[in-house]
């Protein structure tokens, strides 16, 4: 029922005289429909215009009022139409039974016109209020969904911008963030039912991992160009400076967390990935020398994704490596550089890694 339209009332009674009396009483203020059986009531209630209120007799041949109301309540299209029983059955027991099966009110015959008009008006106003609230809730839900989608887009764009801030200083890495995002997603989906990873790799956490992955090298903005872009091997001193990018990245993300009014889940994972994605399973990595399961799962996934992509792409200090040779190196690093189960998942979905690499290859590799 919309504001400004005449409400529709369906009167159901097997006696023509009763239909005539109620129709005459209500038709000056309402659009009136009439039915002489429960079966016809159901047909009209499913059609258009949909009744805003049904006045329903109880004692009828075929479907009685109780059965008709039960069927109305059973269908999604009619279950919210309010029903007032109008019947000659008196007594509190009959009224209580009528209310128990879902009627909103109970009017006894012979009818008292002012009482009928008052009760009908009350139910129509309640229906109008419920419809308004429902419309408002639908609008609010749509608005919440729109704003959440907008926030997701803003987050994604902001993350990409930050990631490109680090990446732009080394333009030859190109689509590195797209590839590593998809490698991480592929590994996580492959391992989501593995007993070692199932508790962590929920659908929600996988999406957060994918969202946070582009920030893994954000700390490189703090590494001098002469080291970051050096075409040859780094000196021991330069290598120590290069390694600081892991902590620089996690520190930057931690500062961003501090500015947020509440915990931002993907930043927590982003911080783990940035800080520990260069750790190795055997404890020989940096910056903290973590080993085994002490390395967060998010960082272990990114470690393999990052190494594979570094091997197959051109860098200032090396040409690209073949997919097969990169695969051999990762297999050799199983249990040393990489979590054995994550390396195993990589081997199982190697063709998917190759497909991702082709899909997001850099322009100079096309």
Notes on the structure:
The chain is of the alpha/beta class and 366 residues long. It has two domains: 8-140, 3-Layer(aba) Sandwich (Rossmann fold); 168-365, Orthogonal Bundle (Hypothetical protein af1432), CATH 1.10.3210. 56% of the residues lie in helices and 6% in strands. It has 15 helices and five strands. The chain has helices at residues 16-26, 38-46, 65-74, 92-100, 113-167, 176-191, 203-212, 225-228, 236-243, 245-259, 265-276, 297-312, 323-332, 340-348, 350-359; strands at 8-12, 31-35, 53-56, 83-87, 105-108. Strands 2-1-3-4-5 form a five-stranded parallel β-sheet, sandwiched between helices. Strand 1 (8-12), helix 1 and strand 2 form a beta-alpha-beta unit. Helix 2 runs parallel beside helix 3 (65-74) and helix 6 packs antiparallel against helix 7. It is rod-shaped and about 105 Å long.
Total of helices: 15
Distance between the termini: 60 Å
Q: Which sequence of SSEs, written as H and E, runs from N to C?
A: EHEHEHEHEHHHHHHHHHHH
Do you know the CATH architecture of the largest domain?
Orthogonal Bundle
Strand order, sheet with most strands: 2-1-3-4-5
Uncertain stretches: none
Strand content: 5-15%
Broad CATH class of the largest domain? Mainly Alpha
Structural class: alpha/beta
Q: Percent range for helical residues?
A: 55-70%
Shape: rod-shaped
CATH homologous superfamily designation of the largest domain: Hypothetical protein af1432
- What is the C-alpha radius of gyration, as a whole number of Å? 35 Å
Main beta sheet strand tally, sense and closure: 5 strands, parallel
**Overall pLDDT confidence:** 88
Number of domains: 2
Query: How many runs of DSSP E, i.e. beta strands?
Result: 5
Q: The CATH topology of the largest domain, please?
A: Hypothetical protein af1432
């Amino acid at each position: 029922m919309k504001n400004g339209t005449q409400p529709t009332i369906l009167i159901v009674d097997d006696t023509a005289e009763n239909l005539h009396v109620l129709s005459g009483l209500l038709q000056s203020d309402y659009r009136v429909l009439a039915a002489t059986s429960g079966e016809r009531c159901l047909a009209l209630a499913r059609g258009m215009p949909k009744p805003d209120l049904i006045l329903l007799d109880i004692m009828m041949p075929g479907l009685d009022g109780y059965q008709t109301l039960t069927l109305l309540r059973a269908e999604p299209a009619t279950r919210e139409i309010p029903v007032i029983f109008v019947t000659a059955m008196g007594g509190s027991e009959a009224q209580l039974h009528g209310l128990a099966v879902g009627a909103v009110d109970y009017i006894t015959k012979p009818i008292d016109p002012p009482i009928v008009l008052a009760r009908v008006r009350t139910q129509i106003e309640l229906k109008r209020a419920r419809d308004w609230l429902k419309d408002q809730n639908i609008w609010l839900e749509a608005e919440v969904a729109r704003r959440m989608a907008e926030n997701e887009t803003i987050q994604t764009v902001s993350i990409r911008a930050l990631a490109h801030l680090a990446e732009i200083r080394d333009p030859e890495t190109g689509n590195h963030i797209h590839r590593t995002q998809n490698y991480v997603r592929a590994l996580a989906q492959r391992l989501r039912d593995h007993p070692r990873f199932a508790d962590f790799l929920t659908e929600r956490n996988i999406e957060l991992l994918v969202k946070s992955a582009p920030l893994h090298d954000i700390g490189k903005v703090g590494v001098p160009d002469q080291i970051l872009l050096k075409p040859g091997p780094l000196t021991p001193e330069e290598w120590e400076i290069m390694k600081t990018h892991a902590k620089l990245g996690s520190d930057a993300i931690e500062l961003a967390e501090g500015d947020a009014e509440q915990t931002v889940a993907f930043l927590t994972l982003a911080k783990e990935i940035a800080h520990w994605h260069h750790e190795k399973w055997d404890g020989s990595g940096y910056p903290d020398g973590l080993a085994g399961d002490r390395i967060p799962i998010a960082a272990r996934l990114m470690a393999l994704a990052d190494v594979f992509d570094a091997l197959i792409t051109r860098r200032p200090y090396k040409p690209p490596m073949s997919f097969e040779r990169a695969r051999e190196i990762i297999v050799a690093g199983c249990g040393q550089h990489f979590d054995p189960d994550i390396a195993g998942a990589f081997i199982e979905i190697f063709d998917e890694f190759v497909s991702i690499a082709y899909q997001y290859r850099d322009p100079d590799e096309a």
